[in-house]
Amino acid sequence: MSDKTIFDPQPFELTGTIARLVPLGFEHAAGVLEAGNDDAIWTYLGNDRPRNRFEAEQWIANRLKDQSSGSRLVCAVMSMSDGRFAGSSGYSHINRQHRTLDIATWYGTRYQRTGMNTECKYMLLKYAFETLGAHRVGLTVDIQNIKSRKAVERLGAIQEGIIRKERIRKDGSHRDTVLFGFVDDDWPEVKAHLERLIAKY
Question: Within a domain: residue 187?
């Protein structure tokens, strides 16, 4: 896609075999509570686990506030097998000038290791590179989150570096953040790799 094409991500829907991505809304509050009902999911996230409907709606409101500023596009991940809210994924740190963005994600425990993450990342990467015309898609992971680091590496992302003391965790400790990324030059090979992984499911 030409650099002259306007890079302006807007709310979208994507449908796969395992998952469907739809714009996040307050109608998903009950799903956030159900899918997010495990403290382990929130260990490396910036927020504590929502424990009631009000806190779930506040979590959604904060995501939508970022979206209204233009820095984020948040989706509810809906399971195709049972129709339930399975987690949240989408784009963050959207930079329209430089045509870059990140992917941020979490899933309920029952939907982990099901192929859902692979398919959602595939759909988001394909949409970013082939429809939006992104030059780079990044992912950031807490250095202590070995499970997520391995999952990102399995997708074919390149580890680009480690930012020391990049932020302060909820417990007050300093977080080193591992940077992973895909660029448009990588996409044909990564696309084929992800399609092979998806075929296994």
Answer: yes
Compute how many other C-beta atoms are within 10 angstroms of the C-beta atom of residue 132: 21
Q: What is the pLDDT, as a whole number, of residue 16?
A: 97
The 3-state DSSP class for residue 103 equals: strand
Supply the range of the domain harboring residue 65.
Answer: 14-199
* Separation between Cα atoms, residue 33 and residue 122, nearest integer Å: 26
HSE, side-chain direction, 13 A CA sphere, residue 61: 7
Across the strands, what pairs with 168?
Answer: 174
- R_g of the chain, CA atoms, integer Å: 16
The whole-angstrom separation of Cα 201 and Cα 147 is: 20
Any domain includes 143: yes
Tell whether 135 is covered by a domain. Answer: yes
Residue 191 banded pLDDT, cuts 50, 70, 90: very high
User: Model's pTM, two decimal places?
Assistant: 0.95
Residue 4 has a pLDDT of 63
Report the helix count and the strand count for the chain, using DSSP H and E.
5, 8
| Domains held by the chain: number | 1
- In angstroms, rounded to a whole number, what is the distance separating the alpha carbons of residues 27 and 23? 10
Domain membership of residue 2 (yes or no) is no
Report the run of H or E that residue 162 belongs to, with start and end. Answer: strand 158-168
For the chain, what is the mean pLDDT? 95
CATH code, domain carrying 24: 3.40.630.30
The two structure tokens encoding residue 130: 């082939």
